Amino acid sequence: MTQSALIIDRNPALARTLETSPPGGALPELSGLDDEPVKEPWLPAALLMRWGVRACVFIAMCLIMLPGLWVMLNAFRTNVAILARDSIFAATSYTLDNFRDVFGMGDTAGIPVKAYFVNSLVISVTSTVIAIAIGLAGGYAFARYKFRFKKTLFVGLMLSRAVPGIALSLPVFIIWSWLGLIDTKVGTIIVYVAMNVPFSVWLIDGFFRQIPKELAEAAEIDGCTRWQAFWQVEFPMAKSGIASAAIFAFLTAWNEFALASQLTRSTDTKTLPVGLMDFTAQFTINWAGMCALAVIIIIPALILTFIVQKHLIAGLTFGGVKG
Amino acid sequence: MKLLRKLPPEARLLLPAFVVILLVVAVPLLFSLYTSFTSYRLVRPETIWNVVWFKNYLKLFGNSDFWWAFGRTVLFLTVVLNLEMLFGLALALLVNQVTRGQRMLRTIMMFPMMFSPVLVGFQFKFMFNDNIGIVNHILQNWFGVTEAIPWLVESHLAFFSLACAEIWNSTAVFAILLLAGLMAMPQDPLEAARVDGCTPLQAFRHVTLPFLMPFVYIAMTIRSLDVGRAFDIVKIMTNGGPAGRTELIWTLSARAGYEDARMGYANAMSYVAVLLSIAFTVHFFRKLNASRQFLNEVDA
Amino acid sequence: MKNQPFVASLTLLSTLAATLVMPTAWAGPYDGYTLRVKLIGGEQYEPLYSVIPEWEKKTGAKVQIVSSKSHFELDRELKQDIASGKIDYCLFSNHTNFAAQYVTITRDLKPLVPADFVSKFSPRVIQQSTIKGKLLEIPRHSDISELYYNKKAYDDPANKAAYKAKFGKDLAPPQTWDDVAQQAKFFAKPPNFYGTQFAGKDEAITGRFYEMLVANGGQLFDKNFKPTFNSPAGVKSLNWFVDLYKSGAVPKGAPNYVWDDLGNGFASGTVALDLDWGGWASFFNDPKSSKVAGNVGIIRAPKGSSGKRTGWSGSHSFSITQSCDNPKAAADFLMFITGFDAQMLEARRGLMPTRLDAQQAALAEFKAKNETYLTDVFNTFAAGMREDSFTPPLIPEWVEVSNSIWPELQKAIVGDKTSKQALDDAAKKVEALMDDAGYYK
């Protein structure tokens, strides 16, 4: 029996959902009224609606894609073509120079993209892993234990995330400089862990609530320790919840700018979004270069999202909703 | 270590979370609370001991620029969050209708989430530039507009442009959460509604929407938690200008703190921003709990 | 170990090499020392840093760049460092117009840098680097704005005829700011072409207003630091901006423009006149980056009503920290990167050297190579620096003063207030600020 089936067993609403959905799909691919056109008395109307939906989806996706695609396109165009608003269909306006420049293969010095990339990766991955570990512990505690001030503590934890980064930046900076954490990866990682713990706790807490206590208890009766029962029974079931918390945490860390720009200074610690500012000088902004770096930032995040988005949806579905 | 062992297991499990929050959020906030009662100037470290009590706050509350910025921030947050919710809902409903290629659509839908807000700021600043920007270019070439529309200058348009950037960047969060909600939705009630002769609109209004409400509030809570990220966007696109027309508390306090180096005053302002964020979050949290309760009752 | 012979021979070889190299390495006076520096980053500034290895070789020291950021970020970073009290570096990139803010961490260079080295520099710039008798920085290159114009617009016969018919004068690059306004309005055909443009926010508009004020015979402060910019000269200066904006001779987005928007605007070929920095000269004339390449003209900044030219300027510079553990090494490095050879490196890229000998040598080089455009540019900017340049008041409050002024200037430009009212309001804010800072006690 798969984990999701286990959950479904205990969750009548979801079981109902899955029954009505077509078999084979890992996810309930739900659909609206146009799913069964045969039963519909007015076929043309259903057809019209289906095409209407498709048209709307197309327009919406265009609106979403265009501003982003514009950036990606500019990464492959010359600055002068962008500024002079040359037609995007003019083949001459395309070039790989921006990437050459970014990697220091052109005539300019280039920026240490590789170092930034590694920094970003190390900082984002480490902080995500730690945040999830802490979130797992915290979420489990909120879901499984009863204690005093539970609600207050929970809300307090959430509110800590509501403090805008800009309000934190200076005090964190000063305290970090006392602790010698400025311009270290560790310093940035700690901040990102704190940023991501509340949301992770929330999602994971919601997830564990969906998993019936009795399952772990049964395992304990069968001779498992509590620790074993957790890892063998409860943890695997919470996987998609953890995955969705992780992708949110990763994206937050990967794209964060306000705090990283204060806490990182040298090539050894600067992350990719901070590196974007390398393209701005007092008088100039190298927009094409910036776009090239943007592509380098976006592509990994996009691939990752594409891979885990199934878990993301499942994780968000089960976690968090029921109080 | 011994002390740690004595703690009950739930406390041990919660300890790391609270330690890290204490270190990164609570202690710095206490520090900035203290400095908001001093005449602390960044370039004169010794002024941190110069306690002036409520002088910064009094100055702040007597400053009409601040109140304008405050009102504008509330308005901006309200407008942006609600629009994102509406667009996110529409997007989720649309994507949910599509059965084939949904994985691709979902990835596209989340595409803007990959853009760091600081990049979004530069991007939309360029797009909305009145002279060399792509938006005016398209309007002039394809739609016969004959003037250069000053997107980032005229006060309503500037507000609109900022909102566009922020909405583009963050609607995906709503869409993905609401889509998750739609997918978890039981089909029976919808089926029943159809049999009873409800129109699709009525079915949506009375069946789908109530089920989605907790998801809406979750999304609202999550977004209000990190809406402060919008600071990066506003800072780069207009930095509060022109003529203070898009000044938000964040831009005002960042300028006072770093450029003018008046940290005490800036932190007093930050505190108001923190309280505002917390108020928004608590508001949605309450709503969330209420709708959860409603759902649980229905379920039972 | 398998490859022991190899390791052994390697050790031998390196010992040998070390004995051979050692004499030169020993000659370095700062052997083994690591000099920590914070340098301004960005395309315009980084080519200079390619000389650093040379100094390292010469002295045996190592240079560690602990931070390399744009001017505004570096400013914030320095302020944070002052706040946290952790200054663990020796040298940092400074700027004449901001140096007063960092006085507490900056060393007086007079005991460290010989007088005959300083005497090589433009006296005016050295004077701008001195606050209360302390030489706080050695300038690296100077920034001043002169007037670029689009030759296509001026050489166009139709334009010439129309201008003559309308004003009874020949169309020629403007000598006064009133001319600029007249020609800008004449050229403007929004949204496709604009007469001129200006930066409309941040310190940029304060600076532009300030230089116009000076050219019109006004001043920001009287000698007791009471604001006087709301004088008739001030109103006249601000009206110049308001009038051009209202008439549509500048892009409607100008109040949100800063330097990059201006440079890109002029390079896109849609602007006739552009008062801008010397750093843009090569960018404007490079077909890879600019549509006006080959058609760029340059003249001295026009005159205001007092007969003075505008000349808001400042110099990028280097300073040494109070807490520096080896000021001698730092000073040696400082003199190396502001030396003749280093300045020539920047001059060849179109930046204005602060050393007079480098200015002359660079000019001779351009002439010898028959680069008329660069010669013109260089002559114009050098003349501007020599005769017209002035800095804002060198007080730590300058940024704050500017932040009090520019939002009010914007209000007048976009029409929310009259010029007089905006300047009065700005003056009130500035007076309160200066009072707070203890100037009137």
Provide tags for this entry:
heterotrimer, A: 323 residues, mainly alpha, MetI-like fold, 69% helix, C: 441 residues, alpha+beta, D-Maltodextrin-Binding Protein, domain 2, eight-stranded mixed beta sheet, 18 helices, 10 strands
Question: What would the principal axes of the Cα set say about the shape of chain C?
Answer: globular
* CATH C-level label of the largest domain in chain B: Mainly Alpha
- The end-to-end span of chain B amounts to 45 Å
Uncertain segments of chain C are 18-25
- Quote the CATH topology of the largest domain in chain B: MetI-like fold
Number of helices of chain B: 13
CATH superfamily of the largest domain in chain C: Periplasmic binding protein-like II
- Give the helix tally of chain C: 18
Quick gist of this model?
The complex is a heterotrimer of chains A (323), B (300) and C (441). Chain A is mainly alpha-helical.
Outline the structure in words.
Chain A folds into two domains: 33-74; 113-318, MetI-like fold (Orthogonal Bundle). Chain A is built from 15 helices and no strands. Chain A has helices at residues 3-9, 12-20, 43-74, 79-83, 97-102, 113-144, 150-160, 165-179, 185-210, 213-221, 226-237, 239-255, 260-263, 272-276, 287-318. In chain B, 74% of the residues lie in helices and 0% in strands. The mean pLDDT of chain B is 85. Chain B is built from 13 helices and no strands. In chain B, helix 10 (200-226) runs antiparallel to helix 13. With 441 residues, chain C is an alpha+beta fold. Chain C folds into two domains: 25-142 and 314-377, Periplasmic binding protein-like II (D-Maltodextrin-Binding Protein, domain 2); 144-312 and 391-436, Periplasmic binding protein-like II (D-Maltodextrin-Binding Protein, domain 2). Chain C has helices at residues 4-27, 52-59, 71-84, 115-118, 123-128, 151-155, 157-167, 177-187, 202-215, 232-247, 259-267, 281-284, 327-337, 340-347, 356-368, 372-387, 398-413, 419-436, and strands at 34-40, 62-69, 91-95, 130-131, 134-135, 138-150, 273-277, 296-299, 313-320, 352-353. In chain C, strands 1, 2, 3, 6, 7, 8, 9 and 10 form an eight-stranded mixed β-sheet that branches. A two-stranded antiparallel sheet of chain C has the order 4-5. In chain C, strand 4 and strand 5 form a beta hairpin. Chain C is globular, with a radius of gyration of 25 Å. The chains are: A mainly alpha (323), B mainly alpha (300), C alpha+beta (441). At the A-B interface, helix 2, helix 3, helix 6, helix 7 and helix 8 of A face helix 2, helix 4, helix 5, helix 6 and helix 8 of B. Chain C: Keywords: Signal. Chain C: This is Sugar ABC transporter substrate-binding protein. Chain C: Residues 1-27 form the signal peptide. Chain B: Keywords: Cell membrane, Membrane, Transmembrane, Transmembrane helix, Transport. Chain B: Belongs to the binding-protein-dependent transport system permease family.
